[in-house]
Amino acid sequence: MDRLKSVFDEFVSRHGIGVALFISLTVLVWVLVLIALPQVAMLDYSFRHNLSPQDIGGPQDVYTLSNYGFFLFRDGSGTNTLDMGVLGKTILASVLVTIIDVIVCYPIAFILAHSATGVAARLMILGLIVPFWVNEILRAFAFRVIFGATGLINGVGMSLGFWDVPIDFIRANVALYSGLTYTYILLMVFPIYNAVEALDRNQIEAAQDMGASWWRVHWRIVLPVAKPGIASGATMVFMLTAGALAAPQILGGPSNLWFTQLVYQWFSDAGNWQRGSAYAAILLVTCLGFVLLMMKVFKVNIGAIGR
Amino acid sequence: MSASTLRGQTFSVGYSLLFFGFLFGPLIIMTITAFNSSSFPRISPWECFTTEWFGVLVNDRRLMGGLVNSIIIGAGVVALSVPVGLAGALALAEIGPKLRSALYTVLITPILIPGVVLGISTIVFWGHIGRQLGFGYDSVFFNGMFLTIAGQVTFISAYAMLIFSARLQRFDPTLTEAALDLGATPGQAFRKIMLPFLRPAILSAAFLTLLASFENYNTTVFTILAQSTFTTALASKVRYGIDPSLSALAVIIIAVTLIGAMIQEAHTRRREAIVTGRASRSRLYGNPIGRFVAHPATIGLLLIALAAVAIWRGSLHDATVCKQEVIDEKRANQQRFLEEQQKRMKQNAPAPQPAQPGAPQGTKNPSPFGGAFGNVAPQSPDAAPPGPPPAQNPSPFGGAFQGLSPPKQ
């Protein structure tokens, strides 16, 4: 408390009482009312029964573990392998998308930082940003146009005689993974670019002069510098992919659910907000836990995110 | 230049081309499909050049209603999240390192939390408050617009904060100190030194937050409740049946984006030339005509005029003749197919329910001729109900050939 008081006094002496009040109150409201309390409320909600409005606050309104129990056991009849499978698959697929994004974006970030100059570099940055001003839904839609049963790839492939029956890219999730990879490219390129840009070009040249092969230069010199950027980008891409809802709804196969779709179903189709909250909490905890674990494994800290 | 750097450069250029091909390919394909009269967005087979999908788009009530909601929400989100983000960035810039990393972690988490979770927590929280205070379901706590603004501000503020933080890192605190030494009050120093310094960041934060608000889906789809925004209306349209009017929308967005980007580019170049003093020496900025032509306002007006001409020309374009030809061609094909069928049926003895090779799956086929085939008794195509415009026909051949089923939505 004393620390906060001294921080506030510092603000007052620097910017005046008005600005100091503005800063502290706004940050307080943001942290408490917008970030923390809603999460608490959701967590609280997830431990309650799905009651009709008049029963709320009544004798039946007690805490329960049944919503989480449902995720594990599905009404006591054996383990709920279906939902747990969906969660596991969502995490695995998100990891896959993240890895693809790292592989795709690392070279372009390096080229952007160290090979491209002047107009080319400006054009490249513009070219990176422009596609992301197009709505996410429309980007997913574009992939449907390309991968659909009567889409471009099937049309071209069949008219050239490579295959005669339309390949169901949607069911095979090819469309989904490509769409997700595409959607979050920007979030991967810029953190890596920011990190790699700081690298002194002389280091690369020195290594080359001493006879290092290109992959050795990257492995020993560029990658260590790029690591915080990769960690930052990977965290964002992973979290956003695991939390994606639009792309799986539009591009996902009919039998292949994303975990967010389960959450959505509990809310919209089943009208069971409590269980939906429980599933959302499960998603949040699993994703955050996974990210923290990976940060431990790769020895990065959360301060690097978003930089 | 040694062989290895040459190889490196070839790789760089090749990879960049591939990468940007992947980035722009989908957009280009989508753009082309907006002008094909085929009712499923596709490039091949090409039917007719048409601009009718833009009309379909503009007449989409739900989408346009959502657009109004989106604009209101966007304005609210910009008005709130820019100051909130600014406050966050200022707080981060001036507190001790230990407290800073803790606060940073807290403020950055809304970006990382899945949007679905944010949306749910927002409606649950405000619903709870509303009930505690005894408000009914028609109060603000159960209003989709309010909830959407609250939910979006939570994480969009963090985007604004990142922009302000990046700008603040380059701020020289001695400027404020100098102002204070010269007798300015702290408030004056903030208004006259800090805010002008942050002005470009405020503009880009406003733009980015508006964009983020406009395109957000994951959070909004929960918080908007029974209403709809542009993006949620768009998503349900894409999920339950797609047609090229969506491509038309993409064309509009891409065009607006490109125009904006070009004006921005002209603006930066001009600014750069003036700041570095190159302006007076350069051929372009040195003479009045060049200066006028290269001014961002001129370029902007020119591009907008160009777009207006394109819209005007496009609205005059009439594809009915071409579409009629396509329909006629389809009918001819259909006719030929029927005759073959009849011949085969005559040869194939009196099987009561002859199998129809290549016939579409009857009822599920929206093709105007699907009905004609469900009926085994051959009839002339003229007897079939007058074919609806190809707008409802997913395939130029009415699905008669190759047993093409209609696109599954």
From TrEMBL, chain A:
It comes from the Bacteria. It is a multi-pass membrane protein. The chain crosses the membrane at residues 16-37, 91-113, 119-138, 145-163, 175-196, 230-251, 278-298. Pfam families: BPD_transp_1 (PF00528). Keywords: Cell membrane, Membrane, Transmembrane, Transmembrane helix, Transport. InterPro entries: MetI-like, MetI-like_sf. It is found in: Cell membrane. Residues 87-294 form the ABC transmembrane type-1 domain. Belongs to the binding-protein-dependent transport system permease family. CysTW subfamily. This is ABC transporter permease.
UniProtKB/TrEMBL annotation, chain B:
It comes from the Bacteria. Keywords: Cell membrane, Membrane, Transmembrane, Transmembrane helix, Transport. It is found in: Cell membrane. Residues 67-264 form the ABC transmembrane type-1 domain. InterPro entries: Bact_Polyamine_Transport, MetI-like, MetI-like_sf. The chain crosses the membrane at residues 12-35, 71-92, 104-129, 141-164, 197-214, 246-263, 292-312. It is a multi-pass membrane protein. Residues 383-393 have a biased composition (Pro residues). Its main location: membrane. Residues 341-409 are annotated as: Disordered. Belongs to the binding-protein-dependent transport system permease family. CysTW subfamily. This is ABC transporter permease. It comes from Flaviflagellibacter deserti.
